[in-house]
What we know:
Layout: E1 9-12, H1 16-26, E2 33-36, H2 53-57, E3 62-66, E4 79-83, H3 102-110, H4 119-130
Parallel strand pairs: 1-2
Antiparallel strand pairs: 3-4
Amino acid sequence: MTKTLEFDYIVVGGGSAGCVVASKLAQDGRFSIALLEEGRKDSNRWIHVPATFFKVLQSKDATAYISEPDSSLNDRKFAVPQGRVLGGGSSVNGMIYMRGQAQDYDDWQSVHGCDGWSYRDVLPVFCAQENNN
């Protein structure tokens, strides 16, 4: 006998965005959600040590896709690493924090109407991340 599984939503990809979407959908308990991830739990020890980023890229927990030629790089191609674990690219990013350009956030609010997304609004979040809070 084959068991049939049914879900209200199926989220494909257990990276940062997929995990957040699945979590938000499940938050109030009204929906059943399946989160599908090709890879495994991010248990590779090299994922959790920033200096060993390149060891992760050589493991089954990451894949490097090759870009199309980029005219800004004299038509060279470059590798685009992607995580194949729960956490996706955030699990294989070398534990790097990076602030975006302030004008982009300000534009999100003033041009696109995304209240609460100005640089002034998100700056405390960046500061908390940089201090591991």
